[in-house]
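fyi for ur records
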Amino acid sequence: MARPYVCLLALAAVLLLGIATVSRSKGLRGKEHRRGPRIPSQFSQEERVAMKEALKGAIQIPTVSFSPEELNTTALAEFGEYIHKVFPTVFKTSFIRHEAVGEYSHLFTVQGSDPSLQPYMLLAHIDVVPAPDEGWDVPPFSGLESDGFIYGRGTLDNKNSLMAILQALELLLIRNYIPRRSFFIALGHDEEVSGVNGAQKISALLQARGIQLAFIVDEGSFILDGFIPNLQKPFAMVSVSEKGAINLMLQVNMTPGHSSAPPKETSIGILAAAVSRLEQTPMPNMFGGGPLKMALQQLANEFPFPANIVLSNLWLFQPLVSRLMERNYITNALVRTTTALTMFNAGVKVNVIPPVAQATINFRIHPAQTVQEVLKLAKDIVADDRIQFHVLNAFDPLPVSPSDDQALGYQLLRQTIQSVFPEVNIVAPGTCIGNTDSRHYTNLTTGIYRFNPIYLQPQSFSSIHGINEKISVQAYETQVKFIFEFIQNADADPRPVPHLHEL
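which gave:
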């Protein structure tokens, strides 16, 4: 996921207040579900060995995305052949249709037995970010197993999800499972570099077929353990929204000259002053917009004194909470649009006044703002007509998906979390501050949820897009178990759907 897993979302007012959102709603419990005999999520030793070896093999294929124009297409093609080999039942089952989209992405349509149930979709991506050998304890594409962990680029982002989805389906099919509710599996090949040729094309294809989905589950948040001071128990974070983004290039053009007779200001000096103003002038604090304030107000009574009093009276304490959240770089990212200078290019020779200076700024847009609002604010802060603004790409924040008792996707996740991870009794909604392929599917559903069913500790977080990325064998087995149970839970029929959904 592209700077993904910064989906540590509603680490919200919490890193400083020591609070978390507790989900204790009845959700789908107590409703009438029509389903066949349940297949237990118990795997033989042979199956457990096979599933970890399959993940190792996937890691060994270097499906690296360097840029939208530069992908390892040889590895992507090899990966397509690989999943055919390790998941033969998925590809030969009569009620499953497989299609290649955009040449290297994959779409599976799993036809359920009850067309009155609205279908859903599971997402993952094939590509990974580059991984230079420097700093790694083992080669990053070795898939080496050591001390109970599998090492390699993609073990957390995001081949673990991809392989777990297909592995769970393979194991269900071997046990003669036939789903009641139809579903799709979409595997994009360019998520790390925008998803334009993968997820975006899959979305357009499904829209052309008239498909509307009950919900989508993608990568994003985790079961967080040790991230919040004074919170002893781990809690599950499910992202219900996602920040927008702008990549904005600022440019200054000047007549070149000799450095022995410089002008009062050079292109570099003008541009440096402009980006300094952007860094020193944060975007407005938007606490009170987006899902955060609503969640805190609804769940205030779940927290100990004095946080419960503060959160129950945000009409009085909102300025205090807002200021506290600005003090930590993670919680600050939850309450405002962030500004990050990521590239600066200028100069051709030590004694030449540079004719052009360019800087690229990455804005991550708070859900309460839009691209146009942030762009206007940036221009007002720079306030210099000599600066040219070029929007390289941009998109607005995603809408907030429902997380109440009637939100089928959210409640199915909560139900499965509490089944597979009985020690986890806190489920929190929040906003993903990274970007995922799910943003390409807003035309197909209003319910988009981002959750990776594995534990994440602070020391593991830095390995995502970093060095020594790894997953424990036990954690991967549990992830397969989670998907195995989730697919069966999704066959529930908590409320009637008045029309048919032909795939």
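Residues 278 and 380 are 10 Å apart (CA to CA). thats all i got for now
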